Amino acid sequence: MEIRQVTENKKQYLQLLLLADEQESMIDRYLERGTMFVLEDDGVKGVCVVTDEGNGVAEVKNIATDPAFHGRGYGRALLSHAADLCTGNFHTLQVGTGDSPLTVPFYEKCGFVRSHVLKNFFIDNYDHIIIDGGVQLVDMVYLRKSI
Known about the structure:
Layout: E1 2-6, H1 14-20, H2 24-28, E2 35-40, E3 44-52, E4 57-65, H3 74-86, E5 92-98, H4 104-109, E6 113-118, H5 121-125, E7 131-132, E8 135-136, E9 140-146
Parallel strand pairs: 4-5
Antiparallel strand pairs: 1-2, 2-3, 3-4, 5-9, 6-9, 7-8
């Protein structure tokens, strides 16, 4: 397994990025300003984009693993790499996600704790209804981890 940074042609991974953030215009808001890396293990298995949000906070804006390879530790490896990448330059790593029974427990298992909520984020910022784990996403839930 190898994790490498991507500095050019980031949109070549759009299909994976859309798994975690299904509206391309939203991805466009952070993709170029973010640090992107891919996880390869006999081919690309996952992607992650991290941004500097100021005041010592880095944010995982997008993290996705090819569904055919879920449950193999790739997502956890990407988060661990993001934390390692940010250590020394940031004191907090945060992630914003929908209040989904699929994603929130994953982040909690990785040591993140709930921080705050942005009400109606998905209603106000997306041009369609988003369903994840059988739940309509309405609010953005932020989880944080000290690094």
